[in-house]
Structures are given as structure tokens and as C-alpha cells.
Amino acid sequence: MQENRSASSWSGVEDEFVRVDNLVKIFDDTVAVKSVSLSVRRHEIFALLGSSGSGKSTLLRMLAGFEEATSGRIYLDNEDITDLPPYRRPINMMFQSYALFPHMTVEANVAYGLKQEGVARNEIHERVFEALDLVQMAGYSRRKPNQLSGGQQQRVALARSLVKRPKLLLLDEPMSALDKQIRTKTQLELIKILDQVGVTCIMVTHDQEEAMTMAHRIAVMTEGRIIQCGTPYDVYAFPATRFVAGFIGSTNLFTGTITVDESDHVEIETEDLSRPLFVNHGVSEPLGMEVHVSIRPELISVSHVQPAYERNWGHGLVSHVAWMGSYVRYQVRLDSGKVIECHMPSQTLAQADAPEIDDEVYVSWSDDSATVLPS
Amino acid sequence: MMKVLDWRRFIPSGRTWVIALPFAWLCLFLFVPFLLVFKISFADLQFGIPPYTPLAEIKDESLSLTLHLRGYALLFSDNLYLATYLSSVKMAAITTLFCILIGYPMAYYIARSDPAIRNYMLLAVILPFWTSLLLRVYAWVGLLRNDGIINSFLLWLGVIDAPLEIYRTDLAVYIGLVYAYLPFFILPLYANLVKLDTRLLEAASDLGARPISAFFSVTLPLSLPGVMAGSMLVFIPTVGEYVIPEMLGGANTLMMGRIMWTEFFNNSDWPMAAAVTCVMVLLLIVPLVLFQYSQVRHLQSQKEV
């Protein structure tokens, strides 16, 4: 039953389990979700990533059935569920605030969904403890939610949303109510449990690290639209727009014009650099067009030595050096005044010629480092 | 050197003063009068001013305390009093029940409606308080009388041939009591319902509960403290209510308030009236203690972490 859930097995589209078609949600006078389409595969963990007001939560609430779609359809396992009320959907949600029933014990909370289904009493008991065992909360079955810590409440909420064996599990900002220190640990535990159960999962988060840790694929949302959808690697390495490049990790953006447009490379002139930007692949944009170029900080190196070649470097002064533990963060003010960020391995500082603050330096990157963005 | 006693520590803190004011108020205007009534309940009738025997007397250099138990003895030997107590409690209970049945949906509807119009609806609930209770009960007399508006209208419609006998019956008292005390039930329940986290209802719906099932398994149990508070605010004053049974009730409508009035003003039997009062207070303390207990338990369960 368990399938290989490594990222490489998600290349095909054959196993479409959830399909959202042109979903739109309009509240009074604001458009919260503008024609969103997406498909999620069976057993996939799919993250909707966006800042607040991006429409990600509204989309999730439409999937759960709490909000009625203005137009568009939602299919789950080849069944149109758009018009089903929440209590008829084979979907369960783990709420951001957990929404545990305060007047019920842990056991009663988890049993609630099964009782609504009319499951036999001894089977309820069995399945409740099976679910509580899964989240290691069986010892707390008689406690009330307010007698549990935040992490424990989250486990109970997870057990409650898994006990009905939903076809689709929705996670609404699953880690937002937890302390930063236990988040990473909890994320890994959560993935392990989801993997064990083999449930298809759509999660909503504003935390890009969380999305990259947990999800097989990420859909980046802003202003009610999905602007890019792909594996964490794809979204990070090949951002589709400046927004994605800046939202997922940090980046350096240059604006320039295409001056050489060959099938195997392009050159871009920018005011911020005295030498052209060279990209070792062709782009679809025509000669003379204004484009944006994103270069990740960890792909830029800082040195006292001027590169021997006439492209992909800039000259400036180190304006700030920060020791980040696993890397050193340089801020370099280019001659044009633009400040760029470069991450160097932390061993760099140990070297005798390590660039220091106010040093004159050259920043450079290789031909395959830059990503050209049309918008 | 002499050690100076720090007199400042004998001055109560600000906290004590804040509590002292309402405490003194209750002492002066509730507890002391009640002690007076309690004292009178152990006196005997006598002609004069005041019309009862003193509790303590100094005669021939001896202090004599005289406790007359006539009032209490009569209370427990005459079936009228027992029947009146039972009748009062019964009427208060039925009134409370109807306040729950009518008030719950109203409070629920107001709490669930748009916040913009919620205040107008609350205002409509409180609005009757702007006129005197006496006036409103008189209005009910005009409505319920045999030649009143309701009967005239029904006769005119041809629904009935003879006027309905409502005025001067227990039914009229119930109508008056439920009408007058309904806001006292709605307000605390509304305050409870409006705080209810609607995400809990979403969670219930998400887990497969139909709206009606979600109401009985989530909304109702979580609103019980509000129902309890509202019920107490209706039940306790209703037991001793005088004006409404007097104005709308019939000769055989038995309620404590009327008995007290009769003993006090018509029979000038102060000790008897005092005894009736003391027993009624004792009777009401039981539900009050229960109420207090449930409130405290509720607060504690919320605080526990």
C-alpha cells in the first residue's frame, strides 16, 4: 500500500486525485480567489504558500466546504464535491487553532466524527485508540483540551482529523500555534505520520521553510492566484516571477535589456554592473526586451581578485559582514549603489585574505547561476 | 531607643477598600434588614406600635429573651402556606421553562445575526424596561380582559363564540411573568452565545455533524452556563413576585408575594409575614448555592491548564 514518496516519483500526472477547476470566490466587493486551477496526486502533500490575504485560506475553506465557490468546480477522486456541505465531504481538516471541543475529553473529541457516522461503539473505541496511539496521545484520553500543551493539542487535533480515514486531509497553518523551537521536530513527525497513514494532504502556510520541509509540491499564491506550482527545488531554482524569487528564499534582482540573444546563451546589459550578465541558456524573450535576472546569494562569491573574464561580475565595497553559523552573509554595495547579498561558506572567514568590512571586492557568479524572469 | 510600631500596616490596602464598599452596602441594606425581619419572625402579635412583642426585655433587673414560634408553627401546620410555597415554586419553574423555550431561540438568533443589526435587536429586548413594569402589566390587563383587545378581535374574526377566560387565571399570570422576565433570560444567554467560537461548529460540521446535531453536541452544552445564569435570574425573583400575580391572577392564584402582602397589610400580622419571608429566603438559597457552585466549577475548568 505504501508508495515511494520521494520527490522524483511525482513527475507524472496520471494519478490526479484532487482537481480544482477555475475556482473563484467573491466576497461582497472583493475577489478573494481569482480562477484557481490545480491538481493534486494521490498520497501527495501539497502546500499552498502565500502571505496573508493571498487567498490561500479561502481556497482551503472552499475545499473543506465552509465557503461556497462563486464559480468553478472541485473534484475529489473523480467525484464532483463542489455542492456538498462540509459534513458530507470525505475531507477532514486540522484547524489552525485546533478547534478542539473544550467540553469533551480527548477521547470524546477524537470519537466525535465516528459517532456522527454511526459507527458501532466498540469499533469507535478501537479506532479512537488506534488514532491516539498514532500520535502518541493514548495516555491522555481522559484529559480535557485545556489540560494539554499546545503540542499535545495539535496531536489530538491531528488524531481527530485522521480517525475518519478521510480521502483528503487539510492542514491550516499546522505549526503557527507552536513555539519556533519545536516546529521543525513537529514538522518531521507530522510528515512521518502522514506517510504512515498514506493520506493525500493539502496544507496552507505562510512559512516557506515549512512548505519546503513538508510538501512534495508547492503552489505559490498571491492576490488570489497561483503564480507558480512545482517541487520545492523547481520553485526555488527556477522561480517564475520576481515575486516567487523573493518570497521563496532571498535573492538579488537585476533589471536589464537583452543585447545578445542566441539559442544557447543570452547577454543582458544592466545599469548596476559594468560587465554584461551572461546566461548559458536561451530564453523566449526577444532581443531588446527589458527583463529581470535573479541570482541567489549562495551562488555569488566575494573575492579581492578581479575575475579574468569580462562577464558576470561586479565591483563594490563590503558594507556588512554577518556570521550566520553555517554561512557568512556579505552585503556588498556595488559601484552603482545597489546592495547585493552574498552567502559564502563559513570557512571563508578563516582564510587570511577573507574580505572584511569596507574592503574593495569583486562579486562574481558562474554562467549557469542566473535565472531570467519576464516579470 | 524605642522601637516604633509601624502603624501603617494596620491600614487596609486599596484592594480591601474597593471590596469594602459593596460589602458595606450589602451589609447595610440587605443583611441588617434581613436580621430585623428574622427577629420579627420570632415575635408574637401585639396591639400597638410596633405591632409585635420585643425579642429582649429588661424587667425586674432580669433580661428575658422571648422566642415565639407561633409564626413558624402556623406555617407548618396550615396547609395553605405549604401549598403556596409549592405553587410559587411550580409557577416560577414553569415560567423559567417557558423563558428557556422562547428565549433560547431569540438569544441564539441575535447572537448569530450580523453585528451591525445585533445591537438594534438587543435594544428591542431591553426597550420594555424603559416603561414601568406596572404600566406594562396594566397593558396586559387591557389585552387579556374578557372585553379586551384579544377577545374582541377573536370574536370579531368569528374564531370564538364566547370570550376566552384568561384574565384573572393562572394562565394570565404565566403570560405576564414570562413577558416580564424574558429579557433577564435572554441577556446573559446572549452574552454566552455570542462568545461561542464558530470554528468549533465548523469543526463539528467538518467531522460529519449536521447542523442540528452540531447544535445539540456543541452549542447547547457550551451555552449551559448562560442558560443557568438566565434561569436563576428568572426563577429567583419570580418565586417572590407580587405585582404580576396580584394584577393578573385570580383569587386562587397562590403565590408567596401575595401571602406576605395579606399577612402584613390586611392582617397586620408582622411576625407571620416575617416567618413566611424567612422560609422563602431559605428556600431560594438552595438553588442559589447550586448556581454559585456550577459557576465556580465552570470558571475553574476554564482556568485549569
What does this structure look like?
The complex is a heterodimer of chains A (375) and B (305). With 375 residues, chain A is an alpha+beta fold. Chain A has helices at residues 56-64, 106-117, 121-134, 150-162, 180-197, 208-214, 232-237, 242-247, and strands at 16-27, 30-41, 45-49, 71-76, 79-80, 91-94, 168-172, 200-205, 217-222, 225-230, 252-261, 266-270, 277-279, 290-295, 301-303, 313-323, 327-334, 339-345, 360-364, 371-373. Chain A has 8 helices and 20 strands. In chain A, the strands form 4 sheets. Chain A has a 6-stranded mixed sheet, with helices on both faces. In chain A, strands 13-12-11-14-20 form a 5-stranded antiparallel sheet. A 5-stranded antiparallel sheet of chain A has the order 15-19-16-17-18, with no helix packed on it. The longest helix of chain A has 18 residues, at 180-197. Chain B is an all-alpha fold. Chain B has helices spanning 14-40, 70-77, 79-112, 115-126, 133-144, 149-157, 170-195, 198-206, 211-239, 243-248, 256-266, 270-303; strands spanning 56-59, 62-65. In chain B, strand 1 and strand 2 form a beta hairpin.
